[in-house]
């Protein structure tokens, strides 16, 4: 009997020790990414004694709430952030250096370069891609054929897009050649800036500290857009509509070319199966190709314990496994590892691979003042595009934007 009691006691001690050593990691995520990250956490928790507890924060509130929580000493252990905010949090010394972990991953070279670039500050890496996104163009192959264009040949330059758009508009019947969302800075950095990057140009310097608005690539890009607008080839709601208007317009079969994102393939095939379309990278004025690398990056908050850090990074390894990458693709449209893209997309439309092929060339503005520069409805970028494309004074719009960009950068650069 004594031996039995001793055995029971020993098992009880082992169980209590295991429970005591189990860690719980708090992970804040944007609601826009909440469902898939909650699903990944549930999968992880079911297979591990350690737990990842997801808290969903309204996307617009994520940055101010996280900033306040860090300042107040009540931050989560980790957060999944829009990658564009990574430089700001890293520069504020709010994130944990995970350079060795990232560089040691066997698939480190398969991670989105832009996600790693924006997670890097002062030579240290503070984040790892979670749910990437990329921008592309979609074009209606039926309208291309009707306009005498080759539906199997995507436009190779923005100037070619402009010519194709005018030919499609010439079909009449309220048919338009082109649609872009001009009323949102967030959309414009997503689908307008890639034209500049494809031409090896940019609106900011490499370190994000200086404005470089007035470039030949910018002027050539604006000229092509103004040409389409003057010809009536751009859908009229482009100027004031939103992303939902864009998809609806393209799905109606009355728009030839749409500036959009990688999600469009699965969205159109599931909700608008009658639309005949193809996709392609976003070209520069005279050629080349690029994309906006968007989506989320997972970062650890500075001060996380070593035990919780180990769990959080183990969770990263878990969602990077092939099985989870397929799950991510099914739920959110794009896996985190480019070397698994074909495997992840095997059961899906192969047109998805176009966005992944361009992800290696995709970029994201590296800046410490993203909201003021690009997102704000009264900010210089939105005003620049509205004025330069739809206004009468291109030179004035460019000069004004350069000055406003510079003032913001001088004030906000660390």
Would you give an account of this structure?
The structure is a single chain. The chain is of the alpha/beta class and 414 residues long. It is 49% helix and 16% strand. It has 20 helices and twelve strands. The protein has helices spanning 2-21, 31-47, 62-71, 86-91, 99-104, 113-118, 141-146, 158-169, 185-191, 193-198, 216-230, 243-251, 264-271, 306-319, 322-332, 341-344, 352-359, 370-375, 380-390, 394-412, and strands spanning 24-30, 51-57, 78-82, 120-121, 124-125, 128-140, 176-179, 255-261, 277-280, 282-284, 287-290, 293-300. The strands form three sheets. Strands 1, 2, 3, 6, 7, 8, 9 and 12 form an eight-stranded mixed beta sheet that branches. A two-stranded antiparallel sheet has the order 4-5. Strands 10-11 form a two-stranded antiparallel sheet. Helix 8 packs parallel to helix 11 (216-230), helix 11 (216-230) packs across helix 19 (380-390) and helix 19 (380-390) packs antiparallel against helix 20. It is globular.
């Amino acid at each position: 009997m004594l031996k039995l009691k001793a055995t029971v006691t020993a098992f009880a001690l082992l169980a209590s020790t295991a429970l005591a050593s189990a860690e719980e990691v708090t992970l804040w995520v944007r609601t826009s990414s909440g469902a898939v990250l909650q699903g990944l956490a549930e999968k992880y928790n079911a297979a591990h004694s350690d737990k990842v507890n997801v808290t969903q924060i309204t996307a617009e509130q994520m940055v101010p709430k996280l900033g306040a929580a860090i300042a107040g000493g009540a931050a989560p252990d980790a957060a999944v952030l829009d990658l564009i905010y990574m430089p700001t949090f890293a520069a504020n010394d709010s994130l944990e250096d995970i350079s060795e972990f990232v560089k040691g991953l066997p698939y480190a070279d398969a991670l989105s370069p832009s996600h790693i670039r924006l997670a890097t500050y002062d030579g240290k890496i503070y984040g790892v891609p979670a749910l990437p996104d990329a921008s592309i163009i979609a074009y209606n192959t039926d309208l291309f054929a009707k306009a005498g264009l080759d539906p199997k040949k995507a436009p190779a330059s923005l100037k070619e897009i402009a010519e194709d758009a005018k030919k499609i508009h010439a079909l009449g019947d309220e048919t338009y050649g082109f649609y872009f969302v001009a009323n949102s800075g967030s959309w414009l950095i997503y689908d307008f800036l890639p034209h500049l990057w494809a031409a090896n140009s940019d609106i900011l310097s490499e370190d994000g500290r200086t404005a470089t608005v007035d470039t030949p690539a910018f002027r050539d890009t604006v000229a092509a857009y103004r040409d389409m607008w003057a010809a009536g080839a751009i859908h009229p709601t482009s100027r004031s509509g939103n992303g939902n208007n864009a998809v609806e317009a393209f799905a109606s079969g009355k728009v030839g070319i749409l500036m959009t994102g990688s999600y469009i393939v699965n969205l159109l095939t599931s909700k608008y199966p009658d639309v005949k379309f193809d996709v392609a990278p976003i070209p520069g004025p005279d050629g080349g190709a690029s994309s906006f690398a968007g989506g989320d990056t997972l970062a650890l908050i500075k001060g996380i314990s070593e035990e919780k850090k180990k769990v959080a990074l183990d969770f990263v390894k878990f969602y990077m496994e092939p099985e989870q990458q397929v799950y991510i693709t099914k739920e959110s449209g794009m896996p985190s590892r480019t070397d698994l893209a074909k495997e992840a997309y095997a059961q899906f439309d192969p047109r998805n691979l176009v966005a992944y092929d361009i992800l290696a060339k995709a970029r994201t503005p590296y800046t410490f003042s993203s909201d003021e520069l690009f997102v704000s409805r009264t900010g210089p970028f939105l005003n620049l595009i509205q004025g330069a494309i739809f206004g009468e004074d291109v030179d004035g719009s460019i000069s004004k934007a350069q000055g406003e960009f510079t003032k913001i950068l001088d004030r906000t650069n660390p």
